[in-house]
């Protein structure tokens, strides 16, 4: 049985991945990123948000609406939505 290594086990896995992307984009340590702060507090604009969503899409092989950046404005909210929509088992 082959295990998909990019399948997150929880929303926290997605948060951890997104923290690394945001840290690189904002040029700050990922340990300083609060997953409950809004994306704009990290200085992310619409271009960086699309970049973040593309990285998540590629990492987890999912499709994410660009509107999610505004509908779920924190790492925790966005990760929960992505996980619930794509990976939560019924």
Automatic annotation (TrEMBL):
Pfam families: PP-binding. PROSITE patterns: CARRIER (PS50075). The keyword Signal does not apply. InterPro entries: ACP-like_sf, PKS_PP-bd, PP-bd_ACP. Keywords: Phosphopantetheine, Phosphoprotein. Residues 12-86 form the Carrier domain. This is Acyl carrier protein. It comes from Fulvivirga kasyanovii.
